[in-house]
Amino acid sequence: MIPQLPLPPGRNGLPFVGETLAFIFDPDFAEKRANRYGAIFRTNILGQPTVVMSGPEANKLILSTHFEHFSWREGWPANFRELLGESLFLQDGAEHRRNRKLLMPAFHGAALQNYFVTMEAIATRHLETCADLGDYTWLPLLKEMTFEIASVLLVGGESGPETSRLSEIFTALTQGLFAFPIRLPFTTYGKALKARDQLLKHIEQAIASRRQNPRNDALGLLLQSRDEDGNALSDAEIKVQALLMLFAGHETTTSMLISAAMALAQNPKVLAQARQEQAQFSEPLDFEQLKQMPYLSQILKEVERLYPPVAGGFRGVVKPFEFGGYHIPAGWKVLYQVKPTHRSGEIYSNPDVFDPDRFSPERNEYKNAEFSLVGFGGGARVCLGLAFAQLEMKIFLALLLRSYDWELLPGQDLSLDRIPSLHPRSGLQVKLTRR
Ligand code: HEM
To answer: Residue 137's beta-bridge partner residues?
Structure first.
């Protein structure tokens, strides 16, 4: 008989809570454990034995080569399952493949070109409003912008008071994701359940209106989408998928944009080069120009590397596997971590420095190892909204670079907080002026 490999090193922590509190509240939790145990260690989070893995080989195993050993549904906490329903995040196997294919047309090719006008109009209005404000904190305003873009394009919202109403309801939903699941009307979780039902009702009405007056927004495209056998998503399926898009799509994009604005303000040489690139184009900004901005693309990659909005991903282990000389049993959870790979000195030179040129065709440092840039995940389940997010971010940054100056106000706390997604603690206090 072949002897079974040992379990990864680590500890279980306190009864029931395990190491959950340290995991949530200590930003250096994984780093401290990795220093003690290495790139793979065992812990106990939310009452579940969990293995934390980092480095490009671990990413490759989880995101690609050992795909069928893992379940997304089993990876997410129960609150996510209930609040986000039967959506792509919580589906596996054939069901996931079918639905991802049916959702794809809303996130690629011609669809993106159609979204340009709406994204550009909302971003332009946002920047004009900010320039009128004098000193302000950017994070909440940017979040309003990305939420408006997502709700108008993805769930059929109208700009204006309706978007603000949806945004408030949505905040109640997200607060429930990490709350104790006590279902009473006055608890955070009870309010989140109510918010979910209100949002689903809104999307249901938007679907009915799209059926009467077809439009080429994401919801319209999802209604038209068919697989090879001519099957479509049902209205009930579209409803939960659209809710997921709203959840997945705006907090993350806000995080990357706020980090980009901060990094550009702190790196005048990069800012000057980015402006030079924009100066080559005629006004106004159009969709074709966005394809010819290699330096802006490098900046976005560098922001993804240094300031990844999503820290990693959970999976449930459905088939045991071995990694790094250890055995990981079925029924456990695994968590892949983004930061250790993105800050690895073996892949990136001076990894703590903001340097978009590391992604130039001459250097392309991320090609030193597969799965070394994973801010959008990777493999067959790479972020579905990647191109959507990139389009939105490029439009916003191109408009910002062309027409505005912004300075960081002194005395603010620029240290980073991870929750709900990475951002400077001050929310980025700035002054934006027209050039
Ligand atoms: C800067 C913005 C964004 C970032 C950094 C980001 C990041 C990610 C990451 C890391 C994953 C994989 C998680 C894992 O492996 O556990 C993911 C998956 C996903 N993202 Fe995004 N995302 C962004 C924007 C968006 C947008 C705009 C949408 C939709 C409108 C979206 C929809 C999704 C969906 C549906 C999945 C699951 C895909 C699947 O399981 O097949 N994301 N995203």
So the answer is: 429
Q: Is 388 in the pocket of ligand 1 (CB under 6 A)?
A: yes
Query: pLDDT exceeding 70 applies to what percent of the chain?
Result: 99
Q: Hey, what amino acid is at 164?
A: S
- Decide if 243 contacts 199 (C-beta within 8 A): yes
The two three-digit tokens of residue 55, written as one number: 């480095």
User: Is 422 within 8 Å of 308 (Cβ atoms)?
Assistant: yes
Continuous segment of H or E residues that includes residue 188: helix 188-212
What is the DSSP annotation of 121-150? HHHHHHHHHHHHHSEEEHHHHHHHHHHHHH
> Which of 107, 252, 383, 395 has most ligand 1 atoms within 8 Å of its beta carbon, as the pocket-test mutant?
383
Computed over every residue of the chain, the mean pLDDT equals 93
Q: Quick one: tokens of 180?
A: 């104790």
Spatial CA neighbour of 57 closest among 312, 377, 374, 372: 372
Ligand 1 atom nearest the C-alpha of 304 is 5
Partners of residue 328 on adjacent β-strands: 321
Structure confidence at residue 213 as a pLDDT band (50, 70, 90):
confident
Kindly report, residue by residue over 291-338, the tens digit of the pLDDT: 999 999 999 999 999 999 999 999 999 999 999 999 999 999 999 999
CATH class of 86-307+379-434: mainly alpha
Which residue, judged by its Cα, is nearest atom 14 of ligand 1? 313
**Atom 18 of ligand 1, residue of closest alpha carbon:** 383
Where are the alpha helices (H) located in 339-385, listed in sequence order?
A: 339-342
Question: What tens digit of pLDDT does each residue of 136-160 get?
Answer: 999 999 999 999 999 999 888 888 8
Nearest residue (CA) to ligand 1, atom 9? 376
DSSP 242-277: HHHHHHHHHHHHHHHHHHHHHHHHH-HHHHHHHHHH
